[in-house]
């Protein structure tokens, strides 16, 4: 029997540690327009999501990606650029990226230590956020950070709170019960007794992944939209089985945007699918994605109802973050009741908040709201200006949505099949050539 305290065992443990530690290479020389990030690691369920999460948390655009995790290893190549479409030039960002990718097994995310997490789901309606923030202000709760998503008539929000008077996490069980009860009454309205939910905890999680999980658990993908969608083209998703290799192949074609890959991979991971191979490419503002997946037990999708469910869930994952309406950015000195006052002004002027991002840095509040009118139409510009007058022209600004960076020379143009559906073979051929060139399959024919 080997002595566990022997030097030989120490060297073995070091070898195992090195084999399981992701190896990261960042190359700025090969591609003229993108920084290439290569990651090799031992394979485990969820590691692709963790890698993509690091990139999206840095607000990097993923222009292309080649993914393979067959066998015992995970090997990815990402072509990334910053928000302006340029290669990464800041050495601090590059160093942070190397360090974060090198520790993806640990699932790092933004820290909300010292805050209380509040989760909310329910039926969306005009003025709902105003009522929620009014309750929190009345109960002396400060919202330090929050994200709010709406989709198909449902709302999900994850808020991080602290006590206004003490600045400490909210831990008193009696106060937590009061918060949950009052907010549940607000969320259920007149007809949502069963599905309105509130939950308060000290648990830390990745905010956007948790929002996807909350919406998925609320089955938003099965519901019909209540409000109009503004000039929005639904993503095209197809699912086919590749019987020869026991894969299910998921193809997605939609408008390109930030964090698109994260949203799709997050949903596949939480539905207990494993991505074995994938390719992602963009052309102008269009994104083309193909995933070779199996269940965690190694089997492909087995029925037509399951295929349909996968299609609905991926479409919902893409749509949840779609920015509907006018983008309003609020930057002002933070104070107790600020969010309640601002959202009450929106409600009194018939504006509906379709998405919101709340953050506080020191004494300053940085908040972003996307607003439409009460039925989902574009908000009247005069009403927007009236709202700005009431809140403060210098505090609340109208911000145009940023254009997606374009570079035709570095992006593959994909074929589109009849009826707008993406051709399985157009992107599949790229995957096969890529896998063949790396020696991971025997033939690319």
TrEMBL record:
An annotated Gene Ontology molecular function: amino acid binding
Limits of the ACT domain: 36-111, 117-201, 327-406
Keyword tags: Repeat
Signal peptide, first to last residue: none
Keyword Cytoplasm on entry: no
Superkingdom: Eukaryota
InterPro entries xref list: ACR1-12, ACT-like_dom_sf, ACT_dom
PROSITE patterns membership: ACT
Record bears the keyword Phosphoprotein: no
Function statement: Binds amino acids.
Protein name as annotated: ACT domain-containing protein ACR
